[in-house]
Amino acid sequence: MDLRARLGTSIRTLRLERNLSQEAFADLARIHRTYVSKVERGDVNISVDLIEKIAKTLEVPVSKLFKDAERLG
């Protein structure tokens, strides 16, 4: 699994731990719901700005997203 897919899995796991649907998360992060789905599947290469926005929405440091992704590798 490549880093994009692992990062998406990390984001999905954290979102689910917070009991947020993709739609609710997308609303909080101000990201389109279908784009959230693509991010979680690793279908898109997201920007650093979006990674930061996602981390803030999940209330975790950006580093946690990557640490969790690395553990999946």
Structural notes for this entry:
The protein has 5 helices and no strands. By secondary structure, it is mainly alpha-helical. Helix 1 packs across helix 5. The chain is globular and about 30 Å long. The mean pLDDT is 96.
List the helices and strands and how they pair.
Elements: H1 3-17, H2 22-29, H3 33-41, H4 48-58, H5 62-72
Radius of gyration: 11 Å
Q: Beta-strand level of the residues, as a percent range?
A: under 5%
The H-and-E topology, N to C, reads as HHHHH
Helix content: over 70%
Number of helices: 5
User: Terminal Cα separation, in Å?
Assistant: 7 Å
Unreliably modeled segments? none
Total strand segments: 0
Mean pLDDT: 96
Spatial shape: globular
**Tell me about the biggest sheet?**
none
Helix/strand/pairing category:
mainly alpha
